[in-house]
C-alpha cells in the first residue's frame, strides 16, 4: 500500500527513450527529475514505491546514486522545470490509486512556459535566442495567469524597470499564434502608451526580441501610430503591411477610431487592448480619451460582447487608476496582481540616492555645472541622464554646458543630447536612438524633461542627475528608475535642490515611502577648476532674453507645485529673482503686467516687486472691509458695546461709506440707511449700465451679455463679503482666464 507515500507519475514522452518525470513521494513534498532516460525512470519508480524509504531525502539520495551509474549524463538532456504538487489522497472505497491533482504551480523560466504548453514554440525559440532564461518576478507572477485563463482581465502593479513590456508582449504573440488563420489582415492587439518615445520603444522591443530572433513571427506585423507624423503616411503604411499589432498614443488612435471608414477597415477584430503606464496616462489627462477608445473598440468589434481582453499595467495603483479600471475593463471579472510589497519602497533597492542642498538657484546652476564638468574632465565614461524641470531650461542649460566644455577644450570627450516635448518627432526619435547606441568610451549626456522619465529603457545608465524638483513625486521614482534596470547590478542618483525645495522629500517619504538617507545639507561648493562662474555670467549676459524666459518658466513651474509640495512660493520667487540678478551681472528679471495674475498674483507681487523689472501698475493697498465693525475689523462679535447693547452703525466711518464704495459698484448713493431701504435706481440701473470704472479696467470692451443685474444679483461686496473687488479683482481673474 502506498498510503502517505503515494507516487504520482506524470510522464511527457518526447521520444522512445527520453521522458520527463516529476515524482511526488509524500504529501506536500515533491521530487523533481529533469528529462532522464527510461532506465532512470524505472529505477526511480521502484525506489519511490519501496517501503524502506520513510522520507523524500532518502529517496532522492538513492535515485541520485542510481542516476550516476547511467552512462548518459543527465546534463546532456534539456531541462524541464515542471513542478507538480501532490494534493490530499483520496482513499474512498479502499481505492489507493485515486489522486486529486492541484494544477496551481509556479513557473519561473520561459522554458517552463513552453513545457506547460502555455506559449507557442515560435515564441519560445525567439526568447531563447534572445538570451532570456529566467523570468523577472513581475513576469513570473503575471504571465501564467494571463496565459492560462482568458476569461478575466488583468491589472498589474510593478516597479519601473522590472520587465513589464515582455509581460504583455508574450500573451499578445501567443494569441496571434492561436488565431493565425482568423482575420489575418486586421489589427488584433492595440497597445496604448503615454508618450511617443515609449510607443516607439515598445515597437523596437517587438522587432528586437520577436522578429529578429524568429523570422516565423514576422507574419504578425506591427507598427506605431503616434503624433508628430503625417496621418496620411501612417494610413498608407497600414494598408501596405496590414499590421496585427499597433502601438500608439491616445490622441492618434482616437483620430483613427473616430474615422468610421478607417475604423471599420482595420479595428473590427481586436482581441487585446493594453494600457501601459496607466497612471501616467491619467496624469497627463487622457482619462476621457482612454474611456472613449475602449467604448469605440467595443462598438466596432464584430465579435461577441465583452470579447476584447484588457491588460492594464501601472507603477502605482491610486484611486484614479481604480476608477479607470472599472470603466475600461470588458470582462465581468478582473484579477489584480500586485508585485510590490506594501511595506516596500517603490524604487529599486539597488539605487544609491544622494541629495545636495544648496542656498540658492544661483548655486544650484553653478554647482551642478561643476559636477558635470568634472565628469568629463576625469573621463568618467558612460551614460548620464540629466533631468531639468522645464523645456526652456533644458535647451539653454545644455547649450551653456556645451560652451563651457568648448572653452576648456573638453568637448571632444563628451556627447551631449537634448530631449523635450517641443522637438519634432523625427528629431526626438534620432536623439533617443543616438543616446542608446552611444559609445561607452565617451562621456554621454542626455538632458531632458520628464518626457524621458516614464518607461523609457536606456541601457547601462551610470547615474541619474536631477537639477531642481520633478513635477510630482511619482516622477521622481520614474526618473531614478532609468538606472539599475533589469539585471543591472546597481545604479546611482543625485539631486541638486535649494533649501525651500527640501519639503518635496518630506512629501516623498510620506506618500511613497522613499527615503533619501545620503543628504548633504551643509554643502561645501565644489572647487571651480575651470572658472565656471565667470563663464556662466558671460554666457547669460549674451543670451539674457533666453535666460529671462527660462527663469520666468521656472517661476511658473514652482507656482504649479506649491499646493502639492507645500513649498514657500515667496521664498522660491525671491530666490529666483535674486539669482537671476547675480548671474546676469545686475540685470533684473523682466515681468510683463499681463502675467501677474497667471504667475504671481497681487500678494506675491508686492513681496518681489523690488527684485524684478516690472513696468505695470502696482496693486493697491486698501483697507479690508468687514461685515461687522469699523475699519480693518474682522471680528464679528464687536457689534456689541461694553454693556452688551448692540452698536448703532456709524456710516461715516464704515468701510461701506460713499467714498469707499461708490466708484467700484456704480451706485450713486449708499450713504444713509433710507436709500438702502428705498433704493430708487434699483430698477433702471442707469449708473450700472455705464459703469465707467469697469470700462476703464477692460479697455473699453463691451459688457458681457448675461442675466440682468437685478438687486439680488448685485456684487457680493454689497452684502459685506470680504471677497470685495478691493481685495481681489475677480473680474480681472476671469478676463485673464
From TrEMBL:
<comment type="function">
    <text>RNA helicase.</text>
</comment>
<comment type="similarity">
    <text>Belongs to the DEAD box helicase family.</text>
</comment>
<feature type="compositionally biased region" description="Basic and acidic residues">
    <location>
        <begin position="638"/>
        <end position="653"/>
    </location>
</feature>
<keyword id="KW-0067">ATP-binding</keyword>
<dbReference type="InterPro" id="IPR027417">
    <property type="entry name" value="P-loop_NTPase"/>
</dbReference>
<feature type="compositionally biased region" description="Basic and acidic residues">
    <location>
        <begin position="690"/>
        <end position="737"/>
    </location>
</feature>
<dbReference type="GO" id="GO:0003723">
    <property type="term" value="F:RNA binding"/>
</dbReference>
<keyword id="KW-0347">Helicase</keyword>
<keyword id="KW-0378">Hydrolase</keyword>
<keyword id="KW-0547">Nucleotide-binding</keyword>
<dbReference type="InterPro" id="IPR014001">
    <property type="entry name" value="Helicase_ATP-bd"/>
</dbReference>
<feature type="domain" description="Helicase C-terminal">
    <location>
        <begin position="368"/>
        <end position="531"/>
    </location>
</feature>
<dbReference type="GO" id="GO:0016787">
    <property type="term" value="F:hydrolase activity"/>
</dbReference>
<dbReference type="GO" id="GO:0003724">
    <property type="term" value="F:RNA helicase activity"/>
</dbReference>
<dbReference type="GO" id="GO:0005524">
    <property type="term" value="F:ATP binding"/>
</dbReference>
<dbReference type="GO" id="GO:0070013">
    <property type="term" value="C:intracellular organelle lumen"/>
</dbReference>
<dbReference type="InterPro" id="IPR000629">
    <property type="entry name" value="RNA-helicase_DEAD-box_CS"/>
</dbReference>
<feature type="domain" description="Helicase ATP-binding">
    <location>
        <begin position="145"/>
        <end position="335"/>
    </location>
</feature>
<dbReference type="Pfam" id="PF00271">
    <property type="entry name" value="Helicase_C"/>
</dbReference>
<protein>
    <recommendedName>
        <fullName>ATP-dependent RNA helicase</fullName>
        <ecNumber>3.6.4.13</ecNumber>
    </recommendedName>
</protein>
<feature type="compositionally biased region" description="Low complexity">
    <location>
        <begin position="656"/>
        <end position="689"/>
    </location>
</feature>
<feature type="compositionally biased region" description="Low complexity">
    <location>
        <begin position="626"/>
        <end position="635"/>
    </location>
</feature>
<dbReference type="Pfam" id="PF00270">
    <property type="entry name" value="DEAD"/>
</dbReference>
<feature type="region of interest" description="Disordered">
    <location>
        <begin position="615"/>
        <end position="737"/>
    </location>
</feature>
<keyword id="KW-0694">RNA-binding</keyword>
<dbReference type="InterPro" id="IPR011545">
    <property type="entry name" value="DEAD/DEAH_box_helicase_dom"/>
</dbReference>
<feature type="region of interest" description="Disordered">
    <location>
        <begin position="74"/>
        <end position="102"/>
    </location>
</feature>
<dbReference type="InterPro" id="IPR001650">
    <property type="entry name" value="Helicase_C-like"/>
</dbReference>
Amino acid at each position: 500500500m502506498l498510503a502517505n507515500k503515494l507516487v504520482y507519475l506524470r510522464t511527457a514522452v518526447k521520444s522512445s527513450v527520453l521522458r520527463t518525470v516529476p515524482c511526488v513521494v509524500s504529501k506536500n513534498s515533491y521530487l523533481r527529475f529533469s528529462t532522464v532516460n527510461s532506465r532512470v525512470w524505472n529505477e526511480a519508480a521502484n525506489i519511490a514505491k519501496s517501503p524502506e524509504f520513510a522520507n523524500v531525502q532518502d529517496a532522492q539520495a538513492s535515485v541520485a546514486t542510481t542516476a550516476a551509474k547511467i552512462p548518459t549524463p543527465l546534463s546532456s538532456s534539456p531541462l524541464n522545470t515542471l513542478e507538480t504538487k501532490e494534493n490530499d489522497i483520496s482513499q474512498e472505497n479502499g481505492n489507493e490509486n485515486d489522486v486529486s491533482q492541484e494544477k496551481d504551480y509556479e513557473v519561473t523560466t520561459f522554458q517552463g512556459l513552453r513545457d506547460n504548453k502555455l506559449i507557442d514554440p515560435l515564441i519560445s525559440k525567439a526568447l531563447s535566442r534572445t538570451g532570456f532564461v529566467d523570468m523577472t518576478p513581475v513576469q513570473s507572477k503575471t504571465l501564467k495567469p494571463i496565459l492560462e485563463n482568458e476569461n478575466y482581465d488583468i491589472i498589474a502593479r510593478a516597479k519601473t524597470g522590472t520587465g513589464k513590456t515582455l509581460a504583455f508582449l508574450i500573451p499578445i504573440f501567443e494569441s496571434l499564434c492561436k488565431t493565425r488563420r482568423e482575420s489575418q489582415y486586421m489589427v488584433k492587439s492595440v497597445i496604448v502608451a503615454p508618450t511617443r518615445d515609449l510607443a516607439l520603444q515598445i515597437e523596437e522591443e517587438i522587432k528586437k526580441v520577436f522578429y529578429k530572433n524568429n523570422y516565423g513571427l514576422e507574419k504578425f506585423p506591427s507598427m506605431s501610430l503616434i503624433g508628430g507624423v503625417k496621418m496620411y503616411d501612417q494610413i498608407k503604411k497600414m494598408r501596405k503591411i496590414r499590421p496585427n499589432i499597433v502601438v500608439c498614443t491616445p490622441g492618434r488612435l482616437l483620430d483613427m477610431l473616430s474615422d468610421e471608414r478607417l475604423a471599420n477597415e482595420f479595428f473590427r477584430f481586436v482581441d487585446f487592448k493594453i494600457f501601459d503606464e496607466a497612471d501616467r496616462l491619467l496624469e497627463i489627462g487622457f482619462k476621457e480619451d482612454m474611456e472613449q477608445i475602449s467604448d469605440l473598440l467595443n462598438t466596432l468589434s464584430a465579435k461577441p460582447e465583452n470579447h476584447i481582453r484588457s491588460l492594464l499595467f501601472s507603477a502605482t495603483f491610486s484611486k484614479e487608476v481604480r476608477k479607470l479600471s472599472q470603466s475600461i475593463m470588458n470582462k465581468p471579472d478582473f484579477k489584480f496582481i500586485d508585485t510590490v510589497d506594501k511595506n516596500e519602497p517603490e524604487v529599486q533597492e539597488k539605487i544609491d540616492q544622494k541629495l545636495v542642498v544648496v542656498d540658492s538657484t544661483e548655486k544650484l546652476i553653478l554647482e551642478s555645472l561643476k559636477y558635470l564638468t568634472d565628469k568629463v574632465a576625469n573621463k568618467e565614461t558612460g551614460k548620464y541622464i540629466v533631468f531639468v524641470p522645464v523645456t526652456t531650461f533644458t535647451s539653454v542649460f545644455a547649450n551653456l554646458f556645451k560652451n563651457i566644455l568648448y572653452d576648456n577644450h573638453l568637448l571632444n570627450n563628451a556627447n551631449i543630447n537634448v530631449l523635450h516635448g517641443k522637438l519634432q518627432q523625427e528629431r526626438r526619435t534620432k536623439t533617443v536612438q543616438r543616446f542608446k547606441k552611444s559609445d561607452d568610451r565617451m562621456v554621454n549626456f542626455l538632458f531632458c524633461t520628464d518626457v524621458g522619465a516614464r518607461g523609457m529603457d536606456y541601457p547601462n545608465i551610470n547615474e541619474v542627475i536631477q537639477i531642481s524638483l520633478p513635477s510630482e513625486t511619482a516622477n521622481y521614482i520614474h526618473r531614478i528608475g532609468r538606472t539599475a534596470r533589469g539585471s543591472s547590478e546597481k545604479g546611482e542618483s543625485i539631486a541638486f535642490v535649494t533649501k525651500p525645495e527640501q519639503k518635496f522629500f518630506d512629501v516623498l517619504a510620506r506618500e511613497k515611502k522613499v527615503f533619501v538617507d545620503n543628504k548633504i545639507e551643509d554643502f561645501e561648493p565644489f572647487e571651480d577648476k575651470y572658472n565656471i562662474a565667470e563663464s556662466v555670467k558671460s554666457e547669460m549676459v549674451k543670451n539674457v532674453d533666453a535666460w529671462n524666459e527660462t527663469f520666468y518658466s521656472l517661476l511658473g513651474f514652482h507656482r504649479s507645485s506649491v499646493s502639492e509640495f507645500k513649498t514657500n512660493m515667496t521664498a522660491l520667487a525671491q530666490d529666483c529673482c535674486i539669482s537671476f540678478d547675480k548671474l546676469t551681472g545686475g540685470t533684473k528679471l523682466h515681468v510683463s503686467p499681463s502675467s501677474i495674475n497667471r504667475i504671481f498674483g497681487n500678494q506675491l507681487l508686492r513681496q518681489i516687486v523690488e527684485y524684478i523689472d516690472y513696468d505695470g501698475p502696482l496693486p493697491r493697498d486698501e483697507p479690508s472691509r468687514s461685515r461687522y465693525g469699523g475699519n480693518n475689523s474682522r471680528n464679528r462679535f464687536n457689534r456689541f458695546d461694553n454693556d452688551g447693547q448692540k452698536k448703532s452703525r456709524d456710516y461715516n466711518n464704515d468701510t461701506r461709506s460713499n467714498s469707499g464704495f461708490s466708484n467700484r459698484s456704480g451706485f450713486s448713493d449708499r450713504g444713509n440707511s433710507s436709500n438702502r431701504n428705498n433704493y430708487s435706481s434699483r430698477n433702471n440701473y442707469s449708473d450700472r449700465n455705464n459703469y465707467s470704472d469697469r470700462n476703464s479696467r477692460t479697455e473699453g470692451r463691451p459688457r458681457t451679455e448675461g442675466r440682468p443685474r437685478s438687486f439680488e444679483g448685485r456684487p457680493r461686496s454689497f452684502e459685506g463679503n470680504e471677497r470685495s473687488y478691493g481685495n481681489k479683482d475677480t473680474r480681472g481673474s476671469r478676463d485673464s482666464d
